[in-house]
Amino acid sequence: MAIQEVAVQRSIRMPRKRITRRVVFDQIGSFLFVVPFLIAFILFIGYPIVYGIYISLNHWNPIVGSMGWAGLGQYADLFNMQTLAAQQFWDGLKNTSIFVVISVPLLVLIPLILAFILYRSPLKNLFRPIFFFPSVLSATAVTSVWTWLLQTQGGGINNLLGLNIPWLVEQPWAWISIDMATIWWSMGFNLVIIYAGLTQLPASTLEAAAIDGARSMRMFVSIVIPQLRHVIAFVVVTSTIASFNLFAQSLLMTGGGPGSSTESLSMYIYNQGFNAMHMGSASAMSYLMGLVLAIVSFVQYRLTREGNEG
Amino acid sequence: MTRKYRRVLVILLLTMISLLILYPFAWMISTSLKNLTDAYNGQLIPSHPTFANFLAILNAGADTPVLRWLFNSIFVSLTAAVIVMIVDSMAAFALARLQFFGRTFIFYLVIASLVVPFIALLIPLYVEFANANLLDSYWVLILPYTANAFGVFLLYQFFLGIPKELEEAAYIDGISKFRLWSQIMVPLSIPALTTLGLLTFMNVYNDFFWPLVSTTSVAMRTLTVGVQIMAVGQYNTNAPLLMSLTLFSIIPMLLAFLFAQRQLTQGIATTGIK
């Protein structure tokens, strides 16, 4: 279709035989621009995705490679609660889900409310960078600081509040700790996105919502939120994906404990692949996790984005 | 009157939230300036501030080559960012501005790869690099980040917005496609390119999972992994040293934040619109 269009345009000026050659060269020339990206894509996304399926169909040791064909056995194992792999997978999925269910609503609601307050407040250019600042830090920097803050003895939070809470070593404190650190870390990121969404709204919407008192809150819920639903849908989905990949906070703050209560799915996959050296099984786990994640985010996206349109 | 009252209330509220957000940061700086005996006394303002911890981590010896880790982190993130900027800019230009066979297919590939979770790539990528004998090298630390579909998408949106007349005028002047890209499109897209470069630098610099599994020798670790190794190892019982190392590890991000905060926030903001 596109080729014909170009050919017709060119044929006005050029004899026929040259046209096709010219068009072919022209197309090749254009195609060359995407070749570097295609190479990177094939080597580091396309091929690994396919190769990973092959690995998951084998008993795979990181040092010797394939140790025999497993077929779908390692997937089937994940649905057979007699196996350790299944127990770990579903335990990890349960733990990760607990984290997702607590963190995602907070990671959306807190930035949403803050963005709304910030948008109408003076000095917004002073406050916004402060709220955003923790987002530029690495997971290890965040967990390193928070682990120290949350030490039962001598930690900054117990010190500040004059308490003696065993933050990292007992439930429910361990989850509260991981959630606090995560919200501190990535709240500002969502705030920036929602804030940008607010600035795109028609001025009349926000003026209506700017009236003082109880009406303001009602306007916020009934006018601002529906108009922001595309941005909110985006934030909900990306926060869910990020929270589902929970790894560093569990590994570094609680070590998966107490017991295995904060051991996330990513941690189990990491241990299965790199410590227990069952890479085939770990691959199967990661594909099943990817599938769960895809389904969850698809459903969420449909619900948040289109729910209000009826 | 009530309006003024409200404004003061809002500022007070936001100030309190800001202090809460800054408290962990202040606590880190405070601890890094304390000696070990004062570390657990709970004071926010150290009574005997010292820089000894910073000197100690910088001279910690061969098993804690902090400067080498810093070099690794910066080298790896900078290289990855530059490659991504070039590769993605070329691809986005072709997808947005040129006609060729398979263009739509490639565009869908870009979109599809945006939703591939990293966890699904972790093990096959590791095995791929193990097969190529490239684990524990700069190759393994840089190459996987070069397949950056997000950047293609970001620049694609930008290139779509450039008026067509500009490129028609250039073609009439007999300019080649390559020069159209390098001399017209790239200079025009500098704001978007800078944003992409900054975001890529930040993501690679801050990444933890991939360098953790793909490197094994002390000399090839990045700072994020270095912080983790020391946090569970030698510095586990020495908060001042650990906080000094942590503070040291975030200096490049702190600088990026101070000097390019606007571009970073704008870049992140654009990811959410559309």
Secondary structure tally, helices of chain B: 14
* Structural class determined from secondary elements of chain A: mainly alpha
**Describe the biggest sheet of chain A?**
2 strands, antiparallel
CATH class of the largest domain in chain B: Mainly Alpha
Please report which band the strand proportion of chain B falls in: under 5%, 5-15%, 15-25%, 25-35%, 35-45% or over 45%: under 5%
Multimeric status of the protein: heterodimer
- The percentage helix of chain B is over 70%
Rounded mean pLDDT score of chain A: 86
User: What are the low-pLDDT stretches of chain A, counting only 5+ consecutive residues below 50?
Assistant: 1-8
CATH homology group of the largest domain in chain A: MetI-like
Could you give the order of the helices and strands of chain A? HHHEEHHHHHHHHHHHH
> Judging from the principal axes of the Cα atoms, what is the shape of chain B?
globular
- Counting DSSP E segments of at least 2 residues, the number of strands of chain A comes to 2
Name the helicity range of chain A. over 70%
The average pLDDT of chain B is 89
The total tally of domains of chain B equals 2
* CATH architecture term of the largest domain in chain A: Orthogonal Bundle
What is the first-to-last residue Cα distance of chain A? 38 Å
What would your notes on this structure say?
The complex is a heterodimer of chains A (310) and B (274). By secondary structure, chain A is mainly α. Chain A has two domains: 74 residues, no CATH class; 233 residues, MetI-like fold (Orthogonal Bundle). Chain A is 74% helix and 3% strand. Chain A contains 15 helices and two strands. Chain A has a two-stranded antiparallel sheet with strand order 1-2. In chain A, strand 1 and strand 2 form a beta hairpin. In chain A, helix 5 runs antiparallel to helix 12 and helix 9 runs antiparallel to helix 12. The N terminus of chain A is likely disordered. Chain B folds into two domains: 49 residues, no CATH class; 215 residues, MetI-like fold. In chain B, helix 2 crosses helix 13. The radius of gyration of chain B is 23 Å and the shape is globular. Chain B starts with a helix and ends with a helix. The mean pLDDT of chain B is 89. With 274 residues, chain B is mostly helical. Chain B has 14 helices and no strands. Chains A and B meet through helix 1, helix 2, helix 3, helix 5 and helix 6 of A and helix 1, helix 3, helix 4, helix 5 and helix 10 of B.
